[in-house]
Protein 1
Amino acid sequence: EVQLVESGGGLVQPGGSLRLSCAASGFTFSLYSMSWVRQAPGKGREWVSGIDSGGGSISYADSVKGRFTISRDNAKNTLYLQMSSLKPEDTAVYHCAKGGRWTYDPDSWGQGTQVTVSS
């Protein structure tokens, strides 16, 4: 079955950077769009970024545009999210998901990786 394992989160100061990774298995990774979504305590799910199967079409939520960069390495079945200029409001559990902004499956998320932005 579909398995998505996120890593790379941690504690970082405001203005700092982190690179998240998502290792995918159980499906043909190169054929699917992928997304990053996040959820902060007491708040709803927020779609963050998406990338098409070949990596040529990319989109971002307004809240992260200009600061985050999504990419993928289909040869490694891995999705990435480079996060820069981090803000406290970026604090959340970050998940990757199979599918794009309108087609991702939130029920297929793994445990996610915690990102905490605090001084």
Note: The two ends are 40 Å apart (CA to CA).
Protein 2
Amino acid sequence: QVQLVESGGGLVQAGGSLRLSCVASGRTFSSYDMGWYRQAPGKEREFVAVINTSGGSTYYADSVKGRFTISRDNAKNTVYLQMNSLKPEDTAIYYCNAVDPPGWGGNDYWGQGTQVTVSS
């Protein structure tokens, strides 16, 4: 079981940058693959980025590739999303996600979300 709390959202002009953070509770953070998702008004929640347990492997949605970077610091129980060259289309609520490793129950865990608004 893990609890997630996101922070770092805000209002920024197009071309600007933001760094989102997600802090996890517990002693088993390093056992979880971690991801970021986002949801814009009237749209379904969509995948943004994922990082494996060690941080050695990452994968991004095409819409953010080359602009966003996901990273993690297991010593701090934290995963980050560095967002550069922001566009108005990036406006959404951003959610942190964790999934139980195989054999742990298959549960999904979500944070409360943090709002990112990019103005033109």
Note: The two ends are 40 Å apart (CA to CA).
Protein 3
Amino acid sequence: QVQLVESGGGLVQAGGSLRLSCAASGRTFGSYTTGWFRQAPGKEREFVGRINRGGGLTIYADSVKGRFTISRDNAKNTVYLQMNSLKPDDTAVYYCAATALLGGSRVGDFGSWGQGTQVTVSS
């Protein structure tokens, strides 16, 4: 059982950057693999990336690889998504999610979800 709250979304021009935060409460956040997902209007929620509980292993979707970076600070119970070189097709609601599994990239792999934060990238 862990509760997650995302923050940091907003409006940005193409090529700009944003950093999203995912703050956790409840069970020890360091016990969870944390994923980032996004959902654009009319589309299914898609995997963006994940970070293991120790912070030493990250996996990214091909669409964001090289532009996005996930990190975590377990002492602060927070995971971050640094987004650089943003593109208009990055526009979506971004969600963080947690799982006790060692890893996963499917929505069904993650049992705890934040409320989402809107990221809008203009052309």
Note: Residues 36 and 96 are 5 Å apart (CA to CA).
